[in-house]
Structures are given as C-alpha cells and as structure tokens.
Amino acid sequence: MRRSVLVLAVLWLAAMNAATAAERVDTPPVLQTIGMWLAANYDLPLAELPAVVTAPAIELVTMRYGAGATISSPEVVAVYDEDVNTIFLAAGWTGRTPAELSVLVHEMVHHLQAAAEMRFACPGEREALAYRAQEAWLRLFGTDLKSTFNIDPATLLVATVCTH
C-alpha cells in the first residue's frame, strides 16, 4: 500500500506544471563523503548514489503521509523513495549548513539501508539509525537535533519505536 501511494505521488509530481513540480538537482559533491562516513561509522554498505530532487514541502507531506494528510508541511523536510532510488528534499534546500546536510545524512541512511536490503518491524525501527547518524553529524558541528530541529528525546522515542 505505501509503495503504491509513493508511486502515485511520483507520477503526480511528474504531471505537475514546471513551476511547482519536483526538480532534479546536481548530486551534491558531499553526498559521496556522507556515504563513506556512514559506511565507516554505522556498518552500512557503500552504494551507488541516489538521485537528489527538490520539491515543494506540501508534496513531501503527500509522499510521506498520503493525500489529505493533516501534517503541516514544515514538519517534513525530506523523503527517501526506495522505489525510484531518490532523495526528495524540500524546495530551497542548499546544503550550505550543517542542519541542511544533516537532513541529507538522515536520508542517505535510508538509501544505504535499502541498498543493504535491510528489513524492519515497523517504520519507526527504520528511523532509529537515521536519527542516530543525524545527531552524530550535528554534534560534529557543535549542535544537536534538539537545538536544530526541536526534536527532544521524548519525540525521538515516539518516532523510533514500534507501537504494534
């Protein structure tokens, strides 16, 4: 079901007019470095780099939660779509700050998890390593998830556990 929604979302994005549609960006040069850092520190495999695309935040919400979701668009800053081997980043992403790069780190974890064909009991379990790596990346620059994204330990716990 989730894959069907994502495929439909990608098809919908392709049909959007040029002013609001997803836009492929040049692969950030740091992406390969991030992949090597993740492989060295988190026992993830090196893999071919994914495509990187920017899209309006509301489209990311639809990709993540489905049409009609009531989540506010600033809460979704990126989505990794395993079916199309693509990281979707919110429009306006530049990769010029540790915070923006940490979003790329988070999504690269999902890309490398997919490359390793890792399977998880629930989506939250998949998120645990991505948030751990993102936190470690931010700490390299003297910050953390709480001060950068207002993600406190309680929020992180809720986001990374299986509830069923």
UniProtKB/TrEMBL annotation:
Extract the signal peptide range: 1-21
Domain DUF6647 positions: 28-145
- Please name the InterPro entries in this protein's record: DUF6647
Organism superkingdom: Bacteria
Q: Carries keyword Signal?
A: yes
Q: What's in the keyword line of the UniProt record?
A: Signal
Name of the protein in question = DUF6647 domain-containing protein
Question: Per the UniProt entry, what species is this protein from, by scientific name?
Answer: Mesorhizobium muleiense
